[in-house]
């Protein structure tokens, strides 16, 4: 499927963390929102994806006692935002280990974290949906994923 969009439709590169603590997974959401996403954010010009994830986790969680592991998946997401703004993003997802004694608290006022047992991961509304499916596959098989997303 070929589409053309005006030059203002830029592509965003994001670094995301599948943050685990023991057998639990840390999810993030904007306060009051009905859906969750993985912690992380935009890669800045001149910054590696891994560096961006480290910076974003520091900004969002305030802790640096975590271990960024391998990249476990890549997800492309193309979607309409607010009905008339096209968004196109490439998400690089890394597994991140956090020790059980490290507190998980949001350092940014507009977000909150929820810690869910791995067995309940599938019950949560996590966006983008295809990344959620890729993560479920990774949790089940340990194999990295690549997902193209049109929504």
Automatic annotation (TrEMBL):
Keywords: Hydrolase. GO terms for molecular function: hydrolase activity. It comes from the Bacteria. Its cofactor is Mg(2+). Pfam families: NUDIX. Residues 4-140 form the Nudix hydrolase domain. This is Nudix hydrolase domain-containing protein. The lineage of its organism: Bacteria, Candidatus Ryaniibacteriota.
């Amino acid at each position: 499927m070929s589409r053309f969009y005006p030059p203002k439709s830029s592509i965003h590169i994001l670094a995301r963390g599948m943050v685990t603590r023991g057998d639990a997974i840390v999810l993030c959401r904007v306060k009051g929102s009905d859906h969750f996403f993985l912690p992380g954010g935009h890669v800045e010009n001149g910054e590696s994806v891994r560096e961006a994830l480290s910076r974003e986790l520091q900004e969002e969680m305030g802790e640096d006692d975590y271990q960024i592991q391998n990249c476990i998946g890549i997800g492309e997401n193309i979607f309409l935002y607010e009905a008339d703004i096209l968004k196109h993003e490439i998400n690089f997802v890394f597994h991140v280990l956090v020790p059980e004694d490290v507190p998980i608290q949001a350092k940014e006022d507009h977000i909150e974290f929820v810690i869910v047992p791995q067995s309940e991961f599938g019950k949560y509304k996590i966006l983008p949906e295809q990344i959620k499916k890729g993560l479920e596959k990774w949790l089940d098989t340990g194999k990295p994923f690549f997902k193209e997303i049109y929504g």
